[in-house]
Design goal:
- The relative contact order is 0.18.
- Helix 3 crosses helix 4.
- This protein has 131 residues and is mainly alpha-helical.
- Strands 1-2-3 form a three-stranded parallel β-sheet, with helices on one face.
- The chain has a single domain, classed as TIM Barrel.
Length: 131
């Protein structure tokens, strides 16, 4: 959801949305939208926190390097990046081993420098052609 659409929504409704689920991942971080949501008290939930595997997320050298430093996998780094910013993440998986991995993101923190490096992966557009 673009910022302008959220502004239009809050200007024309009686109840401010409690949660806004929108495409958010390391490549499309939604910073302007999250800033507005914070101001109005709306929680941000990531739709497709792992980018549906698009844009070479699992082969990304930046994410691989950070993953190795923490003895984690790329998915865990991508999820932790979002969680550390207060973003709600509910990654989809049908495989028990992936579900366990997705839950194992609370036992480490990314350093400030690592967060900044991941922020540089922003491409400023949807990977799904919606916006």
């Amino acid at each position: 959801m673009r910022v302008i659409y959220l502004i239009h929504l809050i200007n024309h409704c009686k109840t401010i949305p409690a949660i806004n689920q929108v495409e958010t991942h390391v490549f499309h971080q939604q910073k302007k939208l999250r800033k507005l949501e914070c101001q109005i008290g709306t929680k941000h939930e990531s739709w497709s926190p792992l980018a549906c595997g698009k844009n070479g997320i699992w082969q990304n050298p930046t994410l691989i390097k950070i993953a190795k430093n923490h003895r984690k996998n790329v998915s865990q780094i991508a999820l932790r990046f979002l969680l550390q910013q207060g973003i709600i993440v509910i990654p989809k998986s049908t495989k028990p081993e992936h579900m366990k991995e997705n839950l194992a993101v609370l036992d480490f923190d990314l350093e400030v420098e690592e967060m900044q490096t991941i922020e540089e992966l922003e491409i400023g557009r949807s990977l799904f052609g919606w916006w």
